[in-house]
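Per reviewer request, we include the raw input and output of the structure prediction for the construct analysed in the revised manuscript.
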Amino acid sequence: METKIAIQGIKGSFHHQVAKDYFYQNVIVDECLSFEELVDSLLKGNSEQAVMAIENSIAGPIIPNYALIDKNNLHIIGEHYLDIIQNLMALPGQKIEDIQEVHSHPMALLQCMDFLKKYPNIKLVEDKDTAETARRIHENQIKGIAAIASITAAEMYNLEIIAPSIQTIDNNMTRFVILKKENSFVSEEEINRASIKFELDHKRGSLAAVLNVMSDCKLNLTKIQSLPKIETPWKYSFFVDVTFEKYEDYAKAKALVSIMAHYFKVLGEYKNTKPLLESPN
């Protein structure tokens, strides 16, 4: 039986590319126009799992998505890293000299601005989605307009890549998480990463004490982000990602932090798949 995967965007988007990489090529996707719609797809049973972008190596964490996962009690069961490669594409047979406008998502345009500045006569037009732009060019056979999108979009919508890999910064990687409504069993031998949330009172040294416990338990803190609790002034929620070599070290830290924190919650325990881009400390 095939599993239906919710993605943000349409086929040919980077979310679709991650779904294909993680769940293999012949994946059935539920195309969602927003992350809120993606969550609803899971909650209503329209899909069994979902792919959600959670942070970018340049832009940083997507905090609203952490809040969506937490608010709807979803479970992170895995992760996938994708190198974001942007490509300029148009209907076959066209050259860069034939292009009058480039349409794409505002972030994609910004990521490729150094390349685009070389062609000041080309008009830049912001659009809602990279893959949607590529699909529209294909369906309407629009000449003179190019899209910036993924290789997957070019292949899916039969567009020709005029200029490959035009992003300004090469090491632009986005981390995606795999979500389910119910938690999936992963053996403790495989688990070496966790996403947790805790809340602390506004007291001097409270956060430092928690971080010291994590350090003493041999956890590597890979990300920490705070959010104020709107309904409770001077209290903060902290979303934290940690990696570890031994599950028992994490289990010890989890037990201690759950006692120290005003509120503690596990968003997911799963296998770390981060590629080694740099030498370890």
